[in-house]
Amino acid sequence: MSTPNAKNFETLSILFADISGSTALYETLGDVAARDLVAGCLALLTRSVPKNQGRLIKTIGDEIMCTFPSAGAALQAACSMQEAVETHRPGGKVQMFVRIGFHFGEVICENNDVFGDAVNVAARMTSVSRARQILATREAVDALSPDLRLRTRQIRRSAVKGKQEAQDIFEVVWQQDDKDVTRVSMPVRVRPAEQPSELILTHGGQKFSINRENQSATIGRGNTCQIIVADDFASRQHANVEFRDDKFILADLSINGTYVRFADGHVLHAVQEEILLRGAGSISLGRAFHEPAARLIEFDIPTPGVR
User: Fold this and answer.
1) pLDDT over 70 for what percent of the chain?
2) Is residue 190 part of a domain?
3) Could you write out the three-class secondary structure of 18-84?
4) pLDDT at position 16, please?
5) CATH number where 74 lies
6) For position 223, which CATH number holds?
7) Which of 35, 76, 140, 304 could bridge 136 with an S-S bond, Cβ 3.0-4.6 Å?
8) Do 134 and 206 share a domain, yes or no?
9) Does one domain contain both 17 and 159?
């Protein structure tokens, strides 16, 4: 007979669901009001866990961690969570969004908790996902039934922290029609003969290159970000910059939004939206460019063959 402290190995789906931009909620609404909204949203997410044979492992600040006996159950729960937030709007007039990631693999079960590399991979899927998005690993998708596998699509191959090789990342299409997802982008120009294949981010003494080998970077206030911005207006994980379909896309994950100023002076402000980056310019997290406290991240997409 097992005891509460017994250790054993199981193959499970590990899922993290995180409230996107929660730091900005506290900054905007204050601790008490923001905490009430976060608690209400987490309670709504939790309802989908037992309905899909899952087990809630823990609540960690503004996210939940749970396990499921199969990849299919995790996918169904993830879709149910996104649909619940979309339908019930737990923030009322304040928009709230959730990002979800899951993985399927062997974990160590001990003291009513789970540990191991599979947990870390699942957490990483969530950290690189966008608001209203569900991401899954190749292992999770391969474990799905054929009909559920049709609801996924590979979106990129990216480096995962702690893994030597880049990993295939899949998106779960949870909306009946995903055309209503807002996109903000610059007009598409005629494609040059040779597409740019690198974007360079710089901020202070920090520099990070995004290319076919390193296909994404997170920018924000958190210590795990590839570009760290020490500004209270920046969320811990404020935005992702991704190399996708031979384009460089900035996806805002925050409440205050991200400002992008291109070399020609044109400025865009994205809130839970995406911007197609081109040429060169500046990025500001949560602050307009005219604000003296704005701390800028410079980006540059060198033209192939031009030095």
Assistant:
1) 87
2) no
3) EEECHHHHHHHHCHHHHHHHHHHHHHHHHCCCHHHCCEEEEEECCEEEEEECCHHHHHHHHHHHHHH
4) 97
5) 3.30.70.1230
6) 2.60.200.20
7) 140
8) no
9) yes
Answering whether pTM is above 0.85, one says no
Token couple for 100: 């979800």
Rounded Cα gap, residues 286 and 299, in angstroms: 17
Q: Which of 123, 122, 97, 133 is nearest to 24 (CA)?
A: 97
pLDDT at 135 over 50: yes
Write phi, then psi, for 136 (nearest 5 degrees): -140, 155
